[in-house]
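Case study 2.
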Amino acid sequence: MKYVLLGKLSSDWVSRQEDRLASAKAKLEELGITIEAVYYTQGAFDFVDIMETSDPTAMLAFSVWYGQQGFGSIQTLPAFDETAMAAALGKL
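Prediction:
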């Protein structure tokens, strides 16, 4: 399953990007989550990532862990492709 992750950095970690990234990447690997893309943005969120995992509880665990580290806040959104959307609409 793919997820879109919307993130805001805390002021403490904005200047410590390398440390935050190293810790986050290690945790993602431990949880079996792969990063497909990372984009830094302007506006309401500082970054948008596309991630994939077969275990939704792994993404939930990462979200909780990220907040515990004080890195900032993230929102994770399950992302559905056209095939999944068509299948869902077929059930209406």
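The longest strand covers residues 2-9.
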